[in-house]
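re: that chain from earlier
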Amino acid sequence: MTATIRILARKTAPLLMAGAMAVGVAAVAAPSASAAIIPNRCEYTGSQPTLSYAPNTYKLAVKQVQCELNYSLKYTTVEVDGYFGSATRSAVRKLQDCSNIAIDGIVGSDTWGKLNYWAKSNGWADVSGSC
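^ sequence. v structure.
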């Protein structure tokens, strides 16, 4: 049964796309994980996993978060060490507050999006007046 569904999906996907385009619906590709790499700034990894407080666990993606936090927050600096400790959690919460997204200290898709935006820009999230 599963094989039949896969075959049917492969055969009908192009037809669905053609039909959607015919009625004016644009197909939008999801951003790739490489969107996390900020050229000439933060180039640790393109991975964007959900991250949360784990002070004893090293992760390369945490280094990416820490680097992007340093390019996003003018008045906050975190050590880029790959460990999601209390300083990183505090900086994440500050960025979330300044960006008007849920303040939970967890780096999920919304937080990654704000990190990528601010780290690429020439502005600062914490001088925007909203935090």
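The CA atoms of residues 33 and 79 lie 23 Å apart.
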